[in-house]
Structure formats: structure tokens, C-alpha cells
Design brief:
One of its GO terms (molecular function) is oxidoreductase activity. This protein is α/β, with parallel strands linked by helices. The protein contains 14 helices and 15 strands. The chain has helices at 30-42, 58-70, 97-111, 130-142, 156-168, 187-192, 194-200, 251-255, 258-274, 278-287, 302-318, 321-333, 363-369, 373-378, and strands spanning 3-5, 12-14, 16-19, 47-49, 78-83, 116-121, 146-152, 176-178, 203-207, 238-239, 242-243, 292-297, 344-347, 382-385, 388-392.
Length: 401
């Protein structure tokens, strides 16, 4: 297992981490959680993610009890939780100083821990001034209840504002953001957040590398495996990339639309060519982004956790660097709405795409495979992946979505 610094901090986190969302309290209790967590530790995972909202707090209780019964040394692991949704009362949610302080103390009680290593603001709060939130998170750090703080699903503008406040007040700014990131959801990580990496040293702990299981390839139109996440009652109403109310549409009926399934089917031959399962390819692809400190994975079975670790081993052991660089490029090809005949020139440094130029792809193919799905319809004049930038010598016109 490789260990990366969490952004510009000195904290080391495993390249893959385990998240308790959906599994703990919904599908697993303490006994099963202990086996799964120990399997993760045996394979080098040291970072475990939670939130006050997961299973209404039960996920934190299960994780804390499991870790205590396993007898792990606290300094050997990194534990995080997230604050925003803590209950039904008017002050039980959001990022006010009151809820941040009370929510943190309640989370620590459920986890049965004196501190968490990282505490996140689970969502932005438009009803609370950023300064109040920044001051409250620093209070949590000063009290020793957490060592670092970060954000989850914030915009680049919101993170920049938090850092501006922190710098003005000589306080600690957020060191990490937790966005969704996978082959079907790329714009924030690869475009919007670019200034944050260099300006503030923000690291990423990304979630949903398999797009809630869609990138395993096990879903077909109208067919939902009974043991899958989409079959869970509490998963209805949550869509990939956005949320809708359950009385309008549910996850199974809208996420598995023809376009998504077509993209997933297009990835399968590439995984077969490389001799790795599609799920492993998808996880390894996320982990290869140099701005990602850790990829948060979910699992309900030990076999799933082992396969996720194998995703990284496949890259470092079975696939050489040039081959994997080819993989990073080609996996993008099938996500493009339509091929665009234009002529890019590439400049790469310190990136998994260092072998971009010598691969010998035709210009037309390079143009198609370097476009992300979100950029296909907005078509910025410069497309990026990590530290790799593709400039268009003849920028194409906007295409309809």
C-alpha cells in the first residue's frame, strides 16, 4: 500500500481508504464490521471515513466499537468524520458554531474516541457566515478534538473564501476536500479545483470511485441485482451526480439510463484488453490522479475489499507505466458524446500522462480521448488531467449535450 500526504499536510493516508457510508448500520453490524476493517488493515489501509449522518449515527458507533474490540493502536490509524446533518432540530444541522461544537462532541462520544484526525464540513451552509464556520473549526482543532479540517462537496469559490478568511484571521484553513470523483464525474477534480492545489495545497479524499457500483458493470437496463446498493430501500432517491426527491424519481430508474450504460459498456473491452476487472480499472484510474490523496471505497464483503486493493497492485505490478498511461487516455474515449476533429498539442509534467506524446495516437483520436464528459458540452479552450494540459490549435465549437 502506498501512503500519500493529505494535501500539503504531514498526515499520511493510505492510497485506498474505507468509508462507512451505506454499509455500517444499514448492511453490517459490529461483528461483520470487525472482519471487514481487519481485512482492510491487513492490506495496508490506515484511513477510515465516517459521518454523523451515516445510519443516523449508528455507523460511528459500529466503527468505534469495532476498532476498540480489535485493539488497534490509535496512532496507527487515521479516522475522519463529517458534520452537517445531526438531527431534526433547527440547530441540529448546518455549520453554525453551535452545531459544529455539539456535533463534534456527539460524534466523538459515538466513536468512543478522544479525537478524530480529520473533521469535514459535510456540505456548505448558505445560512451561516463562512467566518463563523472557519472560527468554529479552528476551535475544534484548538480543543484537540481534531487535528485537521476539510470540506466535502464545496465549490472552489467556497473553499477559496474559507481560505481567505483563515488567512485574514491567522487561522487554519481547510487542508482537504472530499468530492465525488469517477470516470462519470470529473469536472470538479480535473478543472474547477485546479487553482486550489497550487494556491492552498488542498488534497482530495474522493468518494464513489465506482459511481455507486455502476462502474462494476453488473447493472443492465431494468435489471437491479438484489444484493446491490440500488436494491436498498434507503438508496432510492439518490442519483449519481445530483439528488432528486423520491416522489419524482428513484436512483434505479434514472441513473441506469441508456447513456450511462453505453459508457460503461464502452469501458469493458478496455478492461478486458488489460486483463483487469472493470471495477479495478475504475478505482486505479482515480488513484492515479496526482491530486488525489486517498480514494474512499465502500465494501460489505472481505472479497470486495481485497479486490479493491488488487486494483492498485494490478497497476504497479502487472501494467507498466506506459501501458497505464495509455489506459488513462483510452478510458476517456468512450465517455465522449461525439468525436471532435481538432488538433491538440500536449504539455505534461509530473503526471501519470508523461508518456502522452510518444504514444503515437492520431491527432483526431487525441482530441476525442482527452475530453471529459462535462467538458464535451462546455469545451474549454484548455483541457487538463492533473498537471497535463491540452491546448487546442483550432478550438471546436460548442456541441449540444
Amino acid at each position: 500500500m502506498q501512503y500519500n500526504n493529505l494535501g500539503k499536510s504531514g498526515l499520511k493516508v493510505s492510497q485506498l481508504s474505507y468509508g462507512a457510508w451505506v454499509s455500517f448500520g444499514n448492511q453490517l453490524d459490529v461483528k461483520e464490521a470487525k472482519s471487514l476493517l481487519q481485512c482492510c488493515r491487513d492490506h495496508g489501509v490506515n484511513f477510515f471515513d465516517n459521518a454523523e449522518i451515516y445510519a443516523n449515527g449508528r455507523a460511528e458507533e459500529i466503527m468505534g466499537q469495532a476498532i476498540r474490540e480489535l485493539g488497534w493502536k490509535r496512532s496507527d490509524i487515521v479516522v475522519s468524520t463529517k458534520i452537517f446533518w445531526g438531527g431534526q432540530g433547527p440547530n441540529d444541522k448546518g455549520l453554525s458554531r453551535k452545531h459544529i461544537v455539539e456535533g463534534t462532541r456527539a460524534s466523538l462520544k459515538r466513536l468512543d474516541m478522544e479525537y478524530v484526525d480529520v473533521i469535514y464540513c459535510h456540505r456548505p451552509d448558505s445560512c451561516t457566515p463562512i467566518e463563523e464556520t472557519v472560527r468554529a473549526m479552528n476551535h475544534v482543532i484548538d480543543k484537540g478534538w481534531a487535528f485537521y479540517w476539510g470540506t466535502s462537496e464545496w465549490t472552489s469559490q467556497q473553499i477559496t473564501e474559507a481560505w481567505s478568511v483563515a488567512q485574514r484571521l491567522d487561522l487554519v484553513g481547510p487542508i482537504v476536500e472530499q468530492p465525488e470523483y469517477n470516470l462519470l464525474n470529473r469536472h470538479k477534480v480535473e478543472s474547477e479545483f485546479l487553482p486550489l492545489y497550487s494556491n492552498y495545497g488542498i488534497g482530495l479524499t474522493t468518494w464513489s470511485p465506482l459511481a455507486s457500483g455502476v462502474l462494476t458493470g453488473k447493472y443492465k437496463k431494468g435489471v437491479i441485482p438484489p444484493d446491490s446498493r440500488f436494491a436498498l430501500e434507503n438508496y432510492k432517491g439518490h442519483l449519481i451526480g445530483f439528488v432528486v426527491t423520491t416522489n419524482i424519481v428513484n436512483l434505479a430508474s434514472r441513473s441506469l439510463v441508456d447513456d450511462v450504460l453505453r459508457k460503461v459498456d464502452g469501458l469493458k473491452p478496455i478492461a478486458d484488453e488489460l486483463g483487469v476487472p472493470l471495477a479495478q480499472l475504475s478505482i486505479a484510474w482515480c488513484a492515479a490522479n496526482p491530486n488525489v490523496s486517498s480514494v474512499i471505497c465502500g465494501a460489505t464483503k472481505e472479497s470486495q475489499a481485497k479486490r479493491q486493493v488488487s486494483a492498485l497492485l494490478s497497476v504497479t505490478r502487472d501494467i507498466n507505466v506506459e501501458r497505464f498511461s495509455h489506459l488513462l487516455l483510452v478510458t476517456t474515449k468512450c465517455l465522449v458524446v461525439r468525436d471532435v476533429p481538432c488538433f491538440p498539442t500536449a504539455t505534461c509534467s509530473n503526471s501519470p500522462l508523461d508518456s502522452f506524446r510518444p504514444l503515437g495516437f492520431p491527432n483526431e483520436l487525441l482530441a476525442a480521448i482527452t475530453l471529459s464528459p462535462t467538458l464535451t458540452t462546455s469545451l474549454f479552450p484548455r483541457v487538463s488531467y492533473g498537471n497535463c494540459f491540452v491546448s487546442w490549435s483550432n478550438p471546436p465549437k460548442r456541441h449540444p449535450p
